[in-house]
Fold this sequence. Notes:
Strand content: 5-15%
Distance between the termini: 28 Å
Number of strands: 2
Helix content: 55-70%
Radius of gyration: 18 Å
Number of helices: 6
Structural class: mainly alpha
Amino acid sequence: MEKLTQQEETAMLAIWKVGKGFVKDFLEAHSAPVPPYTTLASTIKNLEKKGFLESRKMGNVYEYTPIMEEAAYKQRFMNGFVKDYFENSYKELVSFFAKEKKISPAELKEIISMIEKGK
């Protein structure tokens, strides 16, 4: 599957929030700034072409259903992100955030506890 643009990713977040629905449903769930209907409809068609959605014609409109689950996309995105920017090392990722003071010692202890518990 192709990588999503920022616009496509924002649209997918609205789609995952709604689940199965129509463009108007996704517009209502879309975060600000909300794009025009035609822009979102075009983005949704692109997402269908990329294999993220499937559609079913109902009268003169299409109902869309996500094919890829949000968790699966996050996993794929994070794996690629860590590979591309952190030499495929989650340790390097955590070290980066620790050095940048974006993660506290208490949060690191909580992460270690989660790892030790297998969660």
